[in-house]
Amino acid sequence: MYPAPFEYHRAATVDEAIALLTQYADDGKLIAGGHSLLPVMKLRFAQPAHLIDIRRVPELAGIREENGVLRIGAATTHAAVASSDVIRARVPVLAEAASRIGDAQVRNMGTIGGSLAHADPAADLPAVALALGAELCVVGRRGARTIPIDGFFTGVFSSALAPDEVLVEVRVPVLPARTGGAYEKYPDPASGYAIVGVAAVVTLGSSGVVERARVAMTGLPAHAVRLAGVEGALTGKPATAEQIEATASRAADGLEVRDSAYKENLAKVYARRAMGRAIDGARA
Ligand SMILES: Cc1cc2nc3c(=O)[nH]c(=O)nc-3n(C[C@H](O)[C@H](O)[C@H](O)COP(=O)(O)OP(=O)(O)OC[C@H]3O[C@@H](n4cnc5c(N)ncnc54)[C@H](O)[C@@H]3O)c2cc1C
């Protein structure tokens, strides 16, 4: 299938992209890597008359560390995230997850900003961003704002981004001491998308007790969510194998997968693996 005809615009700056989005309103759509938007256009689920290419906008490029935070330009490709020395050193779980997205072609084209903005319920990075407590810097007609990742995903393919807003930068706190992170996914064998994916970031106290846990899931829910029951059950407890097992048994609580014992089991198994590996990392 070919997409419906459209006009192509290449924005040189964020301001130009916002002006074009404002000008074309419902007929305009940003395109970064195109690896989510173009398939949707080919299926004619979306038929924007104007595509606004932001891939080469300099303000959306670059990865740098500043005051304990990684600032990642929204147009950074999954391949660049996966191979970035600073991300691998400071927030290895993000590099790990990016390295497992799709195949090499997808990773060379798809971007971190496109993945979060698209809010695909089976995408990997939404769960990882939730576990990491990321913040999203966006700019629109009414100015700039920072959106905490908690509450950013609002439904299937929907988010708190306004139609005229450009996601400019993803801010990720550097992992503190005694903290480990892991992302475990059961991938769809054809696409690599997560049938279930669980990201865990765990901080241990000096006595070996879990001081802080952020655990998030993608794939099974309508959009990536934090597993509040799991986080609550793990925090303040000794980081033992028994505790991880007991905590993981709550991974499907509150999710609408109750009808499927298979999916419930997937949730538990992948939560256990992610938490176990995050705790191993925190001890290392
Ligand atoms: C075969 C295949 C396999 C895949 N496998 C996986 C996988 O295993 N895991 C996974 O997570 N993903 C997977 N993907 C999706 C891939 O990672 C996408 O590239 C990514 O999710 C979207 O990024 P993009 O830059 O391509 O966005 P685009 O397709 O360009 O855009 C997607 C949407 O986001 C909007 N957008 C893009 N950038 C911005 C921005 N800066 N500000 C505001 N809005 C923006 C666009 O307007 C559009 O609505 C796969 C895709 C394909 C084709």
Task: List low-confidence stretches.
Answer: none
Main beta-sheet strand count, sense and barrel state: 5 strands, antiparallel
Task: Give the integer mean of the pLDDT values.
Answer: 96
Tertiary shape? globular
The total beta strand count reads: 14
Whole-Å distance between the termini? Answer: 50 Å
Beta-strand level of the residues, as a percent range? 25-35%
The hetero molecules present are:
flavin-adenine dinucleotide
The helix-strand sequence is: EHEHEEEHHHHHHEEEEEEEEEHHH
Give me the number of helical elements. Answer: 11
**C-alpha-based Rg, rounded:** 19 Å
User: Helical proportion?
Assistant: 25-40%
- Spatial sequence of strands, sheet with the most strands: 4-5-10-6-7
Structural class: alpha+beta
What does this protein structure show overall?
The chain is of the alpha+beta class. Helix content is 34%, strand content 27%. The protein is built from 11 helices and 14 strands. The chain has helices at 14-24, 37-42, 78-83, 85-90, 92-99, 104-109, 112-118, 125-132, 228-234, 241-248, 261-283, and strands spanning 7-10, 28-31, 50-53, 63-66, 69-73, 135-140, 143-148, 153-155, 158-159, 166-173, 179-187, 194-204, 210-218, 225-226. The strands form 4 sheets. It has a 5-stranded antiparallel sheet. Strands 11-12-13-14 form a 4-stranded antiparallel sheet, with helices on both faces. It has a 3-stranded parallel sheet with strand order 1-3-2, covered by helices on one side. α9 runs antiparallel to α10. The mean pLDDT is 96. Bound molecules: flavin-adenine dinucleotide. The site of flavin-adenine dinucleotide has 34 residues, from β2, α2, α6, α7 and β10.
